[in-house]
Design goal:
Length: 192
C-alpha cells in the first residue's frame, strides 16, 4: 500500500489503463460516523474494483482509523485536505492525483453503495478503453454510480466538482452512456 497526500504524491508505474477511484472521505453525519468506518464497507468497495489495474482511495474524515482497514490491500491512499467541503473535494483530490499517472480512464465509486459489486464494475468496464469514454451505471434506467470517466474529462470534472455535487454538473452537460445494471444491484447509497 502506498500512502500519499494528494499534492505530494507523483506518478504510478506504466501500463495502467483503468484506475478504480473510491471516494470514502466524508464524515457521514447522517450515518453518525464516517462511512469508511462502517464495518465491511471499505473493504467491500475496494473488492468491487478488483478488475481495475490499480485502486486509489480518497480518505478524509477518520483517515487514520481507516488506513489499517486497508493494510491487506494493494491500494494507494490519497488524503483530501479539504474533505469537509463535500464529495466535490474528494473527487477533485482523487482526479488531481490520477493526472500524474498513466491511466486512460477511471471508475469512480462511493464507499456507501453496499450492493454494488465487482459484477457492476465489470459491466461498466466493457465500455471502450479510451480517454474520451463517459459512462455510468444505471439502475432500472436511473443514473447512479459507478461512473466511468475517460482522462480527457478529468480537467472539466475537477473544475465543476464543488460541494456535494461531485461530477453531477459536468455529467448533465455532456452525453453520458448509460450501462444498465439493475439486474445486478440497486445502486442505492446508504445514508443512515
Amino acid at each position: 500500500m502506498c500512502e500519499c497526500l494528494f499534492d505530494t504524491c507523483l506518478g504510478q508505474d506504466g501500463g495502467v489503463t483503468t484506475t478504480g477511484l473510491l471516494l470514502a472521505a466524508g464524515a457521514g453525519r447522517r450515518m453518525g460516523r464516517p462511512k469508511a468506518l462502517v464495518e465491511g464497507w471499505l473493504v467491500r468497495a475496494v473488492e468491487s474494483l478488483a478488475d481495475c489495474d490499480q485502486v486509489v482511495i480518497v480518505l478524509g474524515a477518520a483517515a487514520d482509523e481507516a488506513r489499517p482497514l486497508l493494510d491487506a490491500h494493494d491500494v494507494t491512499i490519497v488524503v483530501a485536505p479539504d474533505w469537509e467541503e463535500g464529495m466535490g473535494a474528494s473527487l477533485r483530490a482523487g482526479l488531481m492525483h490520477l493526472q500524474h499517472g498513466d491511466a486512460s480512464r477511471c471508475v469512480v465509486t462511493l464507499v456507501d453503495l453496499p450492493d454494488v459489486t465487482a459484477h457492476v464494475v465489470r459491466r461498466l468496464l466493457e465500455c471502450p478503453d479510451n480517454e474520451d469514454v463517459l459512462a455510468r451505471a444505471t439502475y432500472d434506467g436511473h443514473p447512479g454510480h459507478p461512473v466511468l470517466l475517460g482522462r480527457s474529462h478529468w480537467p472539466g470534472v475537477i473544475t465543476s466538482a464543488v460541494g456535494d455535487q461531485g461530477a453531477r454538473t459536468y455529467l448533465s452537460a455532456h452525453e453520458v452512456a448509460g450501462v444498465e445494471c439493475g439486474d445486478l444491484a440497486t445502486g442505492v447509497d446508504v445514508d443512515s
